[in-house]
Amino acid sequence: MAEVHVRELKGWEEMEEVVALQREVWGRAESDLVPRGLLVAVQDEGGLVAGAFAEGRMVGFVFGFPTKDPALHHSHMLGVLEAYRGTGAALLLKRFQRDWCLARGVRRVVWTFDPMRGVNANFNLRKLGATAKTYLPDHYGPMSGINAGAPSDRLLAEWDLLSERVYARLYAPPPEPEVAGLPQANRVEGEVPLEARLDLEAERLLFQIPEDWGRILREDPALALKWREHSRLVLPHYFARGYRLVDLVRHPNRYVLAKD
């Protein structure tokens, strides 16, 4: 695979490439796309629009903007073409974003992600070192493309750019945590959530999510809704009791929750 490099984008033509990537990565309807004019305007006013390039083409991008807090940046979208996932393009985009933010005095970045998508959770928590303690039910309303089929519940990722945890995850990631024997806040059989356990008190807990959320969305809307209702019951309950998501272990996909 060709080497990937990242840089800020310039001009409306490159912003139009970002619009095309949105269509290809997420299969979104036109109404769900961030248009090129808005991308240009946000960049003019201090936002970030950067692209990842390989073999002479743009293969991914990251888009974020300032907030009412000068030390906080909102990262709205990051997308990479399927053929270039696993190349490190997404990680390079986030490293670029971190360096870009720090050079401008920004110390924290937030973004949202679907709590049921294990690949995204693994990237956000395990590879980047973000954490999450805020649950946003149906945050964007009905969505199109790969997100169609269930309410758009999201977690708010919090990325503390100067923390030792974030630096280590970006440049010297540790092995998966040892979770044998930890209590689990739900019982799952196959892909079906059967029971929520809301009375646990341990310092660390597990919460299992589907192995293939995308397939469930496509093939079984009733099961997708059941998972949404299940996560709405369990995760906000433990967030309110002082827990946050700090990691993910794979196969099966299980979040690690730890007390602040």
From TrEMBL:
Give the matching SUPFAM superfamilies.
Answer: Acyl-CoA N-acyltransferases (Nat) (SSF55729)
Q: Can you provide one Gene Ontology molecular function annotated for this UniProt record?
A: acyltransferase activity, transferring groups other than amino-acyl groups
**PROSITE patterns in the cross-refs:** GNAT (PS51186)
> Which ranges form a coiled coil?
none
Q: Which CDD domains match?
A: NAT_SF
At the top level of its lineage, which domain of life is listed?
Bacteria
> What protein is this chain from?
N-acetyltransferase domain-containing protein
Organism for this UniProt entry: Thermus thermophilus (strain ATCC 27634 / DSM 579 / HB8)
Show the taxonomic lineage: Bacteria, Thermotogati, Deinococcota, Deinococci, Thermales
